[in-house]
């Protein structure tokens, strides 16, 4: 594409050459002319940095300057944009990000933990420095959901944003669905297949999804990012029996990140951010999202329901998102990282979920003795929880305990918490109850 | 939002105040502060034009200047951007679009027919005039698919783009699925409910989907838009029996617009653009798209499969897309309408589908007499079409004819056309066969 030879290229410094970094290098090589045509100029990697220079990554690094100290990338005069693929919410990644922005360089990052913890201060710094901060790859891999919210849905007041934000958890839940196996065995298989990490905590306990949700909330609702306020639970308590029971009721179980803004009695706006396993009706688009796929629903006051779906991780999809950000920067289209200027983002109090209403699925594991059911149903009555259907299942295959599952009528979520509290000291319960909200159609 | 009071507003002239135009007016009123915060300045309608000034549209027009002649909007010195919601591929809409661009004004349009027919020359004109041409609302209503392709997937070579691009056709097909009713009765019901127009030709014969597909093709493959080359068929030949048969085979029927680039034997690139009813496997995300919803899949060489889904029409969703374009313009983020500069868009020869391979569903309506099946199967043999399964159904309820359906093995699509040709003169067939491709998982 000789058209671009007269236009200065966008010069890139790349920090972190793991699978995603190598993916970015491969993409910029494979799609070089296409990317140049769309960006209006060439995208050229000038310098790279990673921990180990000698490691074979399957990509040729000989054409790039090497920096042992990645923060030196921020100081190079021959770089316009820094791509941070190091990971970790603080430490070297944050030092690099701050240094790059302070040096007036555009920063592109796939680091959801860093953005969730420091996205606001980085956005303030970037806007003060008049440079770009972009993080499409930090949320839902290759899906252009940051752009979709920031720009595609920009005309709307977003009423709610929710979705499947963690591929590992979704892989496990949908594998349990298919095989009927329990959580532990399915996790082990996912680890063997590379769908779950050796330490899967962040994925299965909802932390990774919470990182992403807090970023989406800030864009959707114009709030300062507040990761700490995400009410977060994982999927490790979900049993094969829950999935079977949900199926019989017409639902599947998905780990759902959900955020919306509510008003308290005194009229002030509060932000609810939850990551919880939920029962999703089989007619809902998210019920058909299986495997390591991510999907995000944004409900706008004019657009209605918008769904974005795709690969939530992987070198190719994540590299696709990183380079999309670089193309925007090369085009001169960056704008405010969180859609409105960072100084206008407001801090918002976290909502208590207590006054919300809805239906829920509750499952108790109990000892097999007389009176247990009476004890549970009395607690429900005392907490004003109305039961729509109650299923006492037979003896579980793995011991002397029995599962009792129920679906409540529409009612305040706070009452369910209260019922759980009333039962918390009971000797009849062998574990805390599993409480899952029913998502509407 | 006093922050913006010092920044000049984006001044808008609005032509055409039907349901979508009224939606744009309502949106800009309801979300005014939000839109200003995201756009960096206020969006203000200055002047409007429509056919009938006195008609009650449920919105207050008294604050806007009125132009009887809509092309006068293009000449006003107090307008930065013209929104064209008049419709029609030529005539007043095109005159207005050309006039606005010639006058250096940004043009936002929801007019798929005009963009499909004249998008290339309008883009050339806009780029020469240094102004913006944007048409998010012309493709799939409120779904930000133009942006998703132009920018979100910009790092990718797009391997294939396909989807459900017409809400009316999808409403009818999914209603037939649910009720078991035939096409004619379902269309009448859709008309009564407002899901189909009095003259539904453009929707049910695939023309509207073809308009949208040709626009998506140009962006995805960097080609000059070529609506005339879309190989187009509608859904009026689909019977309840076909839907039942597809269901038994594990499929649903959807009207699919699909485009990809292929190479001919001599190595030159050719573009296939088809709008056809297809059999979609129940495990595919598009199989779960029911009602008037649209959904588009873009397969990138790094991103993998991206799915965008939402309302394909309606005043709110379409207004959402129109205003998203206006926000981009207010932010100064416009760029090339078709992603790469119009002068670099190449004309591409249309592909013959003959050399493609795949599985297909064929359904014949035949007279009930001996030898018919032998005649059909002989034609298949002579055209080298291998049959995977053949289903002869009983006498159709509406006459003396019998339905014969079959699914072919993977094979050249050209052979199927040849078989149909061999049978075209046959007295046994009461209508041309219905041929539908099977979409892969």
Report on this structure.
Two copies of one chain form a homodimer. In chain A, the strands form three sheets. In chain A, strands 7, 8, 9, 10, 11, 12, 13, 15, 16, 17 and 19 form an eleven-stranded mixed sheet that branches. In chain A, strands 3-2-1-4-5-6 form a six-stranded parallel sheet, with helices on both faces. In chain A, helix 4 runs parallel beside helix 5 and helix 7 packs across helix 8. Chain A has 14 helices and 19 strands. Chain A is an alpha/beta fold and 441 residues long. Chain A has three domains: 137 residues, NAD(P)-binding Rossmann-like Domain (Rossmann fold), CATH 3.40.50.720; 167 residues, Dihydrodipicolinate Reductase, domain 2; 84 residues, Alpha-Beta Plaits. In chain A, a hairpin with a 5-residue loop joins strand 9 and strand 10. At the A-B interface, helix 1, helix 2, helix 6, strand 12 and helix 12 of A face helix 1, helix 2, helix 5, strand 12 and helix 11 of B. Strand 12 of chain A pairs antiparallel with strand 12 of chain B.
Specify the CATH architecture of the largest domain in chain A: 2-Layer Sandwich
Largest beta-sheet characterization of chain A: 11 strands, mixed
Number of domains of chain A: 3
Radius of gyration of chain A: 24 Å
| First-residue to last-residue Cα separation of chain A | 49 Å
Give the helix/strand class of chain A. alpha/beta
Report the average pLDDT across residues of chain A: 94
Biggest interface, and residues per chain?
A-B, 61 and 61 residues
Beta-strand percent range of chain A: 25-35%
Q: What is the CATH third-level topology name of the largest domain in chain A?
A: Dihydrodipicolinate Reductase, domain 2
| The named CATH superfamily of the largest domain in chain A | Dihydrodipicolinate Reductase, domain 2
Helix segment tally of chain A:
14
Beta-strand segment tally of chain A? 19
Shape of chain A: elongated
In which range does the helix fraction of chain A lie? 25-40%
CATH class of the largest domain in chain A: Alpha Beta
Enumerate the spans of chain A where pLDDT stays under 50 for 5 or more consecutive residues.
1-5
């Amino acid at each position: 594409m000789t058209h671009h030879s007269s236009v200065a290229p966008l010069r890139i410094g790349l920090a972190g050459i793991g699978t995603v970094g190598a993916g970015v290098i491969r993409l910029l090589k494979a799609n070089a002319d296409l990317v140049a045509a769309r960006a209006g100029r060439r995208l050229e990697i000038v310098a790279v940095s990673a921990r180990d220079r000698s490691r074979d990554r399957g990509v040729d690094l000989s054409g790039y300057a090497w920096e042992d100290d990645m923060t030196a990338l921020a100081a190079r005069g021959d770089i316009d944009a820094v791509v941070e693929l190091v990971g970790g919410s603080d430490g070297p990644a944050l030092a690099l990000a701050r240094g790059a922005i302070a040096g007036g360089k555009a920063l592109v990052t796939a680091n959801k933990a860093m953005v969730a913890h420091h996205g606001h201060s980085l956005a303030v710094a970037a806007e003060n420095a008049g440079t770009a901060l972009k993080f499409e790859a930090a949320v839902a891999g290759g899906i252009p959901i940051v752009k979709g919210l920031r720009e595609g849905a920009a005309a709307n007041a977003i009423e709610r944003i929710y979705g499947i934000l963690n591929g590992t958890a979704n892989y496990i839940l949908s594998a349990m669905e298919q095989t009927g196996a329990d959580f532990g065995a399915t996790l082990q298989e996912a680890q063997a297949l590379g769908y779950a990490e050796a330490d899967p905590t962040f994925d299965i306990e909802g932390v990774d999804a919470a990182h992403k949700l807090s970023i989406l909330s800030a864009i959707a609702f114009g709030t300062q990012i507040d990761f700490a306020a995400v009410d977060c639970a994982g999927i490790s308590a979900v049993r094969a029996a829950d999935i079977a029971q949900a199926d019989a009721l017409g639902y599947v179980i998905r780990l759902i990140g959900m955020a919306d803004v509510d008003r308290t009695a005194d009229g002030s706006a509060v932000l609810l951010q939850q990551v919880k396993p939920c029962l999703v009706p089989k007619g809902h688009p998210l019920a058909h999202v299986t495997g390591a796929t991510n999907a995000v629903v944004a409900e706008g006051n004019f657009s209605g329901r918008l769904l974005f779906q795709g690969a939530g991780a992987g070198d190719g999809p994540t590299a696709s998102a990183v380079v999309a950000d670089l193309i925007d920067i090369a085009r001169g289209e960056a704008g405010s990282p969180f859609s409105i200027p960072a100084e206008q983002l407001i801090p918002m109090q976290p909502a208590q979920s207590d006054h919300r209403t809805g239906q829920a699925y509750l499952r108790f594991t109990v000892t097999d003795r007389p009176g247990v059911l009476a004890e549970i149903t009395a607690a429900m009555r005392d907490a004003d929880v109305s039961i729509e259907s109650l299923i006492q299942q037979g003896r579980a295959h793995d011991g002397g305990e029995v599962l009792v599952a129920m679906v409540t009528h529409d009612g305040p979520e706070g009452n369910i918490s209260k019922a759980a509290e009333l039962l918390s000291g009971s000797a009849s319960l062998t574990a805390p109850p599993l409480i899952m909200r029913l998502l509407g159609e």
